[in-house]
TrEMBL record:
InterPro entries, alphabetized: SH3-like_bac-type
All residue ranges annotated as the SH3b domain in the record: 58-107
Signal peptide extent: 1-29
Keyword Transmembrane on entry: no
Top-rank taxon, per record: Bacteria
Pfam families xrefs: SH3_3
Organism, as annotated: Desulfotruncus arcticus DSM 17038
Protein keywords: Signal
Name of this protein: SH3 domain-containing protein
Gene3D superfamilies on file: SH3 Domains
Length: 114
């Protein structure tokens, strides 16, 4: 077993290395970042980026959260759209989504979460 002072020095080194190089560099070096939720025995919530929806009927993706905004794309029943965490979610019955390169808002009543 390592002494407490050696463990502290290693922890400081890894933290410093993470700050200097970023986690991508550590991944290439074979050092994985610690998932705090998993370390504490708590399951992490589903990543918001991975939430996807089934379109239940033909509708539009609009440039903003409402019918007064311009139509960017038509989507059809059976299409899949993904939650877009980069757009503001106003919680007003319109969900921010993307499909391909189109980013916008879709009416909640026209989608169903997988």
């Amino acid at each position: 077993m390592l002494k407490k002072s050696v463990k502290s020095k290693i922890a400081i080194f890894v933290l410093s290395l993470t700050m200097l190089l970023g986690t991508a560099s550590l991944a290439m070096a074979g050092v994985a970042p610690v998932d705090k939720a998993a370390a504490n025995g708590v399951s992490a919530p589903q990543s918001i980026e991975s939430i996807h929806y089934h379109v239940t009927g033909t509708t539009y993706i609009r440039s903003g959260p409402g019918t007064s905004y311009s139509i960017l794309r038509t989507v059809y029943a059976g299409d899949t759209v993904w939650y877009n965490s980069e757009l503001t979610d106003y919680g007003n019955g319109w969900t921010p989504v993307y499909i391909g390169s189109t980013e916008g808002y879709i009416l909640d009543s026209k989608i169903q979460e997988y």
